[in-house]
Amino acid sequence: MTQDSKQRIPVNESEPNSRQLTFEIFRFNPLDPGSEPHFDTFTLEETAGMTLFIALNLIREEQDPSLQFDFVCRAGICGSCAMLINGRPDLACRTLTQALPSTIRLAPLPVFELIGDLSVNTGKWMHGMSERLQTWVHTETEPDLDAMEAAMEPALAEQIYELERCIECGCCVAGCGTAVMREAFVGAVGLNKMARFRLDPRDERDDGAFYELIGHDDGIFGCMSLMGCQDVCPKALPLQTQLAFLRRKMAFAGI
Amino acid sequence: MKILHTDVLVIGGGLAGLRTAIGARRRGLDVSILSLVPPKRSHSAAAQGGMQASLANAVKGYGDNEDVHFADTVRGSDWGADQDVVRMFVHMAPKAVRELAHWGVPWNRVQGGKHNVIINGQPVTLEESEAAHGLITARNFGGTAKWRTCYVADGTGHSMLYNVSDQAIAANIPVLERTEAMALIHDGQRCYGAIVRNLMTGELFAHTANATCIATGGFGRIYRISTNAVINEGMGAAIALETGVATLGNMEAVQFHPTGIFPAGILVTEGCRGDGGLLLDGDGHRFMPDYEPEKAELASRDVVARHMEYHIKQGKGARSRFGEHLWLDIRLLGEQHINHKLREVKEICQYFLGINPVHELIPVRPAQHYSMGGIRTDAHGQSPQLQGLFACGEAACWDMHGFNRLGGNSVAETVVAGMIVGESIADYCLSEAGQGMIDTALVKRFLQQEQDALDGICKSKGTEKASELIKQMQTLMTDYVGIYRDGTNLQTAVSELKSLLERSERVGLQSSAPGVNPELVMAYRLPRMLKLALCVAQGALNRTESRGAHTRLDYPQRDDSQWLKRTLASWPLGASSPTLNYEPIDIMKMELPPGWRGYGKKDFIPHPDADTRQQQVDAIHRKTQNRFERQQALLPFHHLLPEKFHQNNARFQENSEGESP
Ligand SMILES: Cc1cc2nc3c(=O)[nH]c(=O)nc-3n(C[C@H](O)[C@H](O)[C@H](O)COP(=O)(O)OP(=O)(O)OC[C@H]3O[C@@H](n4cnc5c(N)ncnc54)[C@H](O)[C@@H]3O)c2cc1C
Ligand code: SF4
Ligand code: SF4
Ligand code: FES
User: Fold this and answer.
1) Is the Cα torsion angle B300, B306, B309, B315 positive or negative in sign?
2) Which of A82, B48, B332, B524 would be a feasible disulfide site paired with A169, CB 3.0-4.6 Å?
3) ipTM of predicted complex
4) What are the start-end ranges of the H helices in B12-121?
5) CA-to-CA distance for B584 and B580, rounded, in angstroms?
6) What's the start-to-end Cα distance of chain B, in Å?
């Protein structure tokens, strides 16, 4: 948990012009009756290659051991660490402080249940969405594990992966006007998953079945196409194209 | 007292835990899963490069089969692996890949016709069979005779984990997310579940079960420089150790990956080298062929990592303000390839290094990567000491990796082990041994014990700081129990770790925040991590030879005459250090008796029975007609597998005699 912060020491010495960073961090512990939502301010000296992962761990180690946040991979691949960074949803672990102004305001993602400080329960939300949208390959056939696999067009496999790269970070949900207003809205993340399974020939569901799942205002028809989601998706998923495509298909399936 | 109960409790929501849970669920059992994080955030998601399975669909995989995969894995392990288990594994890996394909993993596929690749620094044109078009393809990885690593661009683990996790949701298996197993409930003979803590509220409760399976992944974070996620602290292995009964196997066998980006230690996949990337030194010289003329960058990881560190020690490293490192060059693979097949690598380079690997070199240096050691189990995944306790995946040591794991063999192991162990657990639960009442008084006692321990930490007036002690442990491990080891440094590590363990009893907290309290979490994990660190360091100190990833400068040879055995560490209750025992590996049962690996050091001290066994093996080779018959005669393994997995694997171009053109 501390390896990266360790390495700042020699760097620090060779960096005469380092900035003083001011962190304004949202604080609230729902389990503490005495706790009120507010922002705390911390200051840190910036070091080369400093990410918000390094900075937040340093603050917790040296200034406030009760600070809550979530990091797992610290490599931008697991989707744990999304938060509002100066108001914009993004992955904290791969955000370099040098890309930010010297005052950095951090807040938890909206929409999701708050666990404490910067930690939100994206897992629960995503799990609920997966259950509702049944985000798995639906097939009636039992696989014969001893036999050759069914062939698939190489380009199709790559297209499916393209949509499967979503890391369920929740940025698109936090950046979505509909999700803020409609609690049950499945978000770009859910709609993108539908597009992924619709593309997959192994999934035997037809458009009628997909329509049942997303052909309503908590699904594709709730989306206002303002594309806040695409702008903030850290994996640069082609959400705009997928959502537009899905809307056409579902409008058709609904007739 | 809150007690939950299910037939099966799986601790760990990574690939191994999820697949095990699905298997047991399909046999009609009531299963629940615990995980520190939402399952899809488990570290399995980080596996980039791929999964080994001998499908032999791609032209550079022709002729591959279970036998070749077996030999590569055993050689990779430096003969430390259990060959029964390796056999089971190589037989199951193609089934696992195909099951995953059925579940939705978008494996990259063979494109019929000509395509250009880079091999050994040179552009080469390969021609794929049109008949194989659309079958699952494979890339090259270190330490393998064939291109065998199936992949999904460089997001293999992500795709696998997402599809398996979604299957678990489909099977309606409840996951207690953000829940930590704190102790195993047991009576010295049998395990009855675990005491667990809710990491959102801090609530402590008991989760009992007839069978408990630990699938908690590796313990890389006892090191300072590691490719592992920050949650890979080995808590599953540690709570098994703390039973005083269960044992940990080969904890000194720790893998260092050649290409952690420097200095953060974030991994860039072996696929970079598999696809043709090169290692360069500070002068821009490609140095690996100087050390390994044949395999060059693609010798096994232990060998490459050692040469890299050696080369740096010779003053050949590149220098930066963070220290010395080497370069990984993937520019020759071209933009198209990097954008499609090495995308995560590109992103990592952009975000963490601010460079574009299409045009620039990537600074790398070996970093701790994988734990070959773990909870010792038999070939069915059950602890030999504690009935009802199972383990699988990186947390376990059923021992298919010995002293060095091959790239791509780990994610393959997780699913294969899940397929097997899920069945063993079901067999156990449905047998008489797996029935029986659980003594509530025992559960209560364990719960109270854990509660007292937490209260003790919260009330302690101690002045030691957990975060500080963790840092010291990590530094000791990286500096003294790293790639190159020797008696003096290991001795220092052992005594300093012991003193850290003592000091950990005097940890006090500054914060008394209600709820999970991250400072408290660190404080109770600290002594558990230290115990694991001591098993690693003590195991390494005692093992006076070099084998696989365990390299002793003072004992540079592999010594089969003394050390063809597995370390078993246990931690007797109240002890201040681990007890080490040794379990011999029977050379007379080996299908592949020890020899030279085909890369790395050529000299080793042979086992006195090596020649006798080799002659027996040769005689069987002469007597038998085809590879299946020969294999059966050498090392029968089917009886260890559930019956439904007994059939041979179909293979492109292979006939029923196991021959391919
Ligand atoms: C960066 C990186 C890249 C890799 N690339 C490859 C590759 O290309 N090919 C390959 O074969 N292998 C690769 N590996 C290795 C491979 O990914 C892992 O060995 C494998 O995924 C481990 O899977 P697992 O299911 O055993 O554990 P994990 O996926 O680590 O899951 C562990 C689970 O246990 C849970 N857990 C832990 N402790 C507790 C506790 N006390 N209580 C409750 N839950 C707990 C966690 O929440 C998590 O869900 C890579 C490893 C790394 C670090
Ligand atoms: S387009 Fe707008 S409304 Fe639709 S999912 Fe994206 S952010 Fe939400
Ligand atoms: S679609 Fe993008 S922003 Fe939304 S959850 Fe997936 S990765 Fe995150
Ligand atoms: S910690 Fe995994 S994405 Fe940031």
Assistant:
1) negative
2) A82
3) 0.94
4) 15-26, 66-76, 83-103
5) 13
6) 66
Distance CA B224, CA A174 (A): 34
**HSE (CB half, 13 Å, CA atoms) of A115?**
25
The torsion angles phi and psi of B578, rounded to 5 degrees, stand at -75, 155
| pLDDT on residue A254 | 81
- Report the sign of the C-alpha dihedral through residues B83, B84, B90, B91, in that order: positive
Which residue numbers in chain B have pLDDT < 50? Answer: none
Q: What is the pTM of this model?
A: 0.96
Contacts of B510 (CB under 8 A, 6+ apart): A65, B519
Instruction: Say yes or no to pLDDT of A44 above 90.
Output: yes
Residue A187 CA, ligand 3 centroid: distance in Å: 9
Q: What is the DSSP letter of A217?
A: T
> With an 8 Å Cβ cutoff, are A73 and B46 in contact?
yes
pLDDT tens-digit readout, A72-98 = 999 999 999 999 999 999 999 999 999
Q: What is the pLDDT of residues B451-495, one digit of tens each?
A: 999 999 999 999 999 999 999 999 999 999 999 999 999 999 999
Q: So what's the pLDDT on residue A15?
A: 53
| pLDDT (average), residues A124-148 | 96
Residues 6+ apart with CB under 8 A from A118: A25, A26, A56, A67, A68, A69, A70, A83, A92, A106, A107, A108
For B98, the closest of A131, A145, A158 (CB atoms) is: A145
- For B101, the closest chain A residue by CA position comes to A149
> Any residues with CB less than 8 A from the CB of A142 and at least 6 apart, and which?
none
Asked if A75 lies within 8 A of B266 by C-beta distance, the reply is yes
The pair of structure tokens assigned to B426 is 């079901």
Write down the residue that tokens 């400080």 correspond to.
A117
| Cis, peptide link before residue B366, omega less than 30° from 0 | no
Residue ranges and CATH numbers for the domains of chain A are 20-120 (3.10.20.30), 122-138+151-253 (1.10.1060.10)
Single-letter residue type at B173: I
